[in-house]
Amino acid sequence: MTSRHIKPSDALHGVRYEIRGKLAARAHEMQRRGYEIVPLNIGNPAPFGFRAPETMRLAMIENLQASEGYCHQKGICPAREAVVLQQQDRGVEGVTAEHVFMGNGVSELIDLTMRALLDPGDEVLVPSPDYPLWTASVTLNRGRAVHYPCPPEKGFQPDLEAMARLVTPRTRAVVVINPNNPTGAVYPRATLEAITQLAERHGLIVMSDEIYDQMTYGEAQSIPMATLVKDTLCATFSGLSKVYRSCGYRVGWVVFSGHRDHAQGYLDALDLLASLRLCSNVPGQWAVQTALGGFQSIRDLVRPGGRLYESRQALIEGVAASRYLTMTPPAGAMYAFIGVDRARLPDFDDQAFALQLLEQQHVLIAPGTSFNTPYNHYFRVTNLPDRRTLADVFRRMELVLDDLAGEGAPGAAKRTG
Question: Which one of 20, 116, 125, 269 is most buried, counting C-beta atoms within 10 A?
Fold first, then answer.
């Protein structure tokens, strides 16, 4: 009997998710061998001691008996109604529970909304850097991700003129990630209004990823796109994973607002796709009403003295003390996108640095090119660890960077003990 080679689908060509790629696999292998790894590659609060609010757990436990069967394909009514109330409190008009789809995290909903929309060759404007699932979902669903620049020299704010030039007759949607992952940028109202006007002028769907909507620092303010978009369809994505520290519950939602009359066929197609997967995780949905209607503990975490605020300060201090690193201080989310000074390290490569940092210093980061950038001298870290851990991380980074610059003592970058 002859074995036939099994090749992967051609649809996967160009699809990347290096946040959980080869570096993460290598880190997992090292952990199995007994090494302690500092995992800065992924925004997963639980390993760093963050807990979901207790009231959310209680709501799930109290409703377990009502969670054993399938629910409606759009989700349970209490969860969808809670999302509607949140949208109304934020000034979003004309939304009902019929316009809310619950999903197994925002990740599933990104895929479903793209699958319902795209034909082969259709284009979607996606930021660069981006959260790579957006590019991957466009690609897997036969579309073409067209990256609009959010350059470091502009503080990772969208280049609006470049974005406008990228619109073609095949463009179907524009993706906005605000607060941004991976850069931590928060967009001002004027920028969001300009994107809205561009989308309305060309009849594009606005897909607004607002999973970090309440996670802002200092004077930064997250403005819901749905309060601005009136004359085209707006899809707002959010969930429990980040603000409510419950990634494992896998609860997300997408809300459709703005001009919906011309989009009924699209919304019907999305309803069909939601039906085909039967429903999303039911127990987790029971936490939504409590989460959105209860005490917003995230506010204590992001204000001065709060855990996330202080960790962000540790990132800022660590970069400032380095001879090699640069950074636009993150105004939101739970990440920093850190650059390396090309004048000091002209041959720096993010992938090689990430591997060396992991192998020698047992710190796992995400290379910047993982986020669809045209440059390779950036990397992303999360600010979930405490101040002491992050201070030690920067000490370890500096050893590796000294080694790359040829300024360290022989073998200085290698850990001992």
Answer: 125
pLDDT of 411 above 60: no
Rg, the chain, Cα only: 22
Alpha helices in 100-208 (DSSP H): 105-117, 132-140, 160-165, 189-202
Fold type of domain 10-51+300-405: Aspartate Aminotransferase, domain 1 (3.90.1150)
Q: How many CB atoms sit inside 10 A of residue 271's CB?
A: 15
**Residue 14's pLDDT is what?**
77
Question: What pLDDT score does 275 carry?
Answer: 96
> Beta partners for 258?
233
Query: What pLDDT score does 5 carry?
Result: 85
- pLDDT of 410 strictly over 70: no
Lateral strand order in the sheet of 366-367? 325-327, 335-340, 378-382, 366-367
> Which residues share a beta bridge with 253?
102, 238
CB atoms within 10 A of CB 137: 25
Give the mean model confidence (pLDDT) for residues 155-180: 98
Question: What is the C-alpha to C-alpha distance for residues 238 and 105, in angstroms, rounded to an integer?
Answer: 8
pLDDT digits (tens, 9 = 90+) for 72-121: 999 999 999 999 999 999 999 999 999 999 999 999 999 999 999 999 99
Q: Which two tokens stand for residue 289?
A: 């009403």
Burial letters 221-230, b for 16+ CB under 10 A, else e: ebbbbbbbbe
Per this entry, what is the length of the chain?
Answer: 417
- Domain range annotation of the chain: 10-51+300-405, 54-293
Mean pLDDT over 335-347 rounds to 96
CA distances 224 to 27, 181, 213, 230, 236, Å, are 37, 16, 8, 12, 8
Q: Are 232 and 260 in contact (CB under 8 A)?
A: no
Q: What is the 3-state secondary structure (H, E, C) of 337-363?
A: EEEECCCCCCCCCHHHHHHHHHHHHCE
Phi, psi dihedral angles at 366 (to 5 degrees):
-110, 120
Task: Work out the average pLDDT over 269-284.
Answer: 96
User: What's the CA gap between 389 and 393, in Å, rounded?
Assistant: 6
Name the fold adopted by 54-293.
Aspartate Aminotransferase; domain 2 (3.40.640)
Query: Comparing C-alpha atoms, which of 300, 186, 192, 280 is closest to residue 240?
Result: 280
202 contacts: CB under 8 Å, gap ≥ 6: 167, 171
Query: Can you tell me whether residue 332 is helix, strand or coil?
Result: strand
Is the predicted pLDDT of residue 169 greater than 70, yes or no? yes
